[in-house]
């Protein structure tokens, strides 16, 4: 196991290239289950979750070659079982359900991470697939699904679930007839999945809105596709510029997909300027407090809540955060308190009183975005910060310490 040792207090200045999106790459890679022909993907980030996904595809019988952010997929004989050993480490593994049922008419998938069938949002996936003709049973920790042939259906989600929308888009692409998804999630990563499938001959319209129409086709064609840049990584580096009093040029940065985040950062006092496909971010003044409520896209993303809270810790005044998407999304708070932050929690709300500076301390990452927040806090803090359990960080950020060190950070990865 490794940790990061961070010497804080240096403003970040320079250029950072934004990697491909983890949250877009995972469903796009898993959608290769639908194919009987080779597919090539570019701009795929080298991350722990991507490696897990490729291992899962290999177990299912799909050959994968991963070199220089390019993945070449070649289908072989397709298995229908996703074992617990891999599924337990990555919740997105549930996304194999839809494509396996569409291709093979059966799927045996371990419950991800101890999730019960009735827990949100997996029940939304299953009830929607049932409307398309699938039947499910739970046996020895596995969801077992079967169908003769998925049929198009008119489906309304109770909640705009990202994973559920992705699973149903994949399933409906090879289903018989037309499927309509109402109250669908609108995240850019869903649009990227639909764009990829359309490039291979799928017939999907309405993606990016809350009503998506999928006309099933008999098969998909070979194609080459480049994954969109990672908006959460880009937003994280924007916050890094603000927390360190620096300035960064973010190359290949998804500006339009970050409107809700950029709006709050500008209100806090950051200068943010779009330059063709790049974005320039500069800390120009004393940080001002803001209030945020996490919402499904196009609202403020829950995946940026922790990072923005780190920035709020240094604002001149009181900020508030209301988390409406996930429970237990405030696990970074106790670690920020160790670094001198002033935060009070009440249910799903946090009140942050800004302080003049944070101070280095040993801290422990609890999840992916919390770990990024602790790195940012360490960069801004006085003294040395040690971030433990950074395997969370490696799930979603490609070579983060290398990118940050190139713009002035002082970070070392060492054994714990």
Can you describe this structure?
- Helices cover 30% and strands 27% of the residues.
- The protein contains 13 helices and 24 strands.
- Strand 4 (62-67) and strand 5 form a beta hairpin.
- Determine Rg (CA atoms, Å): 21 Å
CATH superfamily of the largest domain: Enolpyruvate transferase domain
Beta strand %: 25-35%
How many strands, which pairing sense, and closed or not: the largest β-sheet? 4 strands, mixed
Question: What is the number of domains?
Answer: 2
Mean pLDDT: 94
- Side-by-side strand order of the widest sheet: 22-23-1-24
C-alpha end-to-end distance = 6 Å
Question: Unreliable segments (pLDDT under 50, ≥5 consecutive)?
Answer: 114-120
Can you identify the CATH class of the largest domain? Answer: Alpha Beta
| SS content category | alpha/beta
CATH topology of the largest domain: UDP-n-acetylglucosamine1-carboxyvinyl-transferase, Chain
EC number: 2.5.1.7
Active site: 115
Modified residues (2-(S-cysteinyl)pyruvic acid O-phosphothioketal): 115
Pathway: Cell wall biogenesis; peptidoglycan biosynthesis
In terms of topology, how is this protein built?
Layout: E1 2-7, E2 13-17, H1 22-30, E3 39-42, H2 48-59, E4 62-67, E5 70-75, E6 81-82, H3 84-87, H4 97-104, E7 106-110, H5 122-131, E8 135-139, E9 142-146, E10 154-156, H6 162-173, E11 178-182, H7 188-199, E12 203-205, E13 211-215, E14 223-226, H8 231-244, E15 247-251, H9 259-268, E16 270-275, E17 278-283, E18 291-293, H10 305-312, E19 318-322, H11 333-338, E20 342-346, E21 349-353, E22 362-364, H12 368-380, E23 384-388, H13 400-405, E24 411-415
Parallel strand pairs: 2-15, 3-14, 6-7, 10-11, 18-19, 22-23
Antiparallel strand pairs: 1-23, 1-24, 3-5, 4-5, 7-9, 8-9, 11-13, 12-13, 15-17, 16-17, 19-21, 20-21
